[in-house]
Amino acid sequence: MIAPPDRTPLPRTFFDRPVLEVAPDLLGRILVRTTLDGPIALRLTEVEAYDGPTDPGSHAYRGRTARNAVMFGPPGHVYVYFTYGMWHCMNLVCGPEGRASAVLLRAGEVVEGAELARKRRVSARNDKELAKGPARLATALEVDRALDGTDACTSDETPLRMLTGTPIPSDQVRSGPRTGVAGEGGNGDLHPWRYWVANDPTVSPYRAHVPRRRRS
């Protein structure tokens, strides 16, 4: 008999570690989004690590701005950014404070509140696609910039909480190049910092960076 996932909140010390330790360890953990309509719980199956000062793919590579300020703050907080003028993406800040490292939540399996996620992801063909990709994940969980800076390490009924869940055994974790990252930051030999659960159907497909064409 398979034991149910641990619903204990993850402590801040979990995130107060180097980002390359935290990222693969997030797989199998449970993210709970509390909405006005009820909770949605997500088991994380795919993430990407970003290490600010040494990582050309990171939003914080060139320093602190109003947009990325949360990345420099205490570990265990949520960093939400808006991209391509239409999508939000969600990250979890890692320590130590001031380092500006974070883990992008790329995909997961909705394990509770699927009926609520379906209302927000009406184009999903099935439940495996509800949070298959970072923008889809944020949409399914109703995450936007209003949640930027939320503390995810608390036992209180906050909008976003990270629970212990069931960690994935290391032999079931895969790694490779990050999706859609340009230049050196997308080099899988230098930055194989995308981690996912092997053979999980909710993991998003890898796509190399494609430069955006300017309209003539």
UniProtKB/TrEMBL annotation:
It comes from the Bacteria. Keywords: DNA damage, DNA repair, Hydrolase. It is an enzyme of class 3 (hydrolase). Residues 159-186 are annotated as: Disordered. The keyword DNA damage applies. The keyword Lyase does not apply. Its EC number is 3.2.2.-. CDD domains: AAG (cd00540). Belongs to the DNA glycosylase MPG family. NCBIfam families: 3mg, PRK00802.1-3. This is Putative 3-methyladenine DNA glycosylase. The lineage of its organism: Bacteria, Bacillati, Actinomycetota, Actinomycetes, Kitasatosporales.
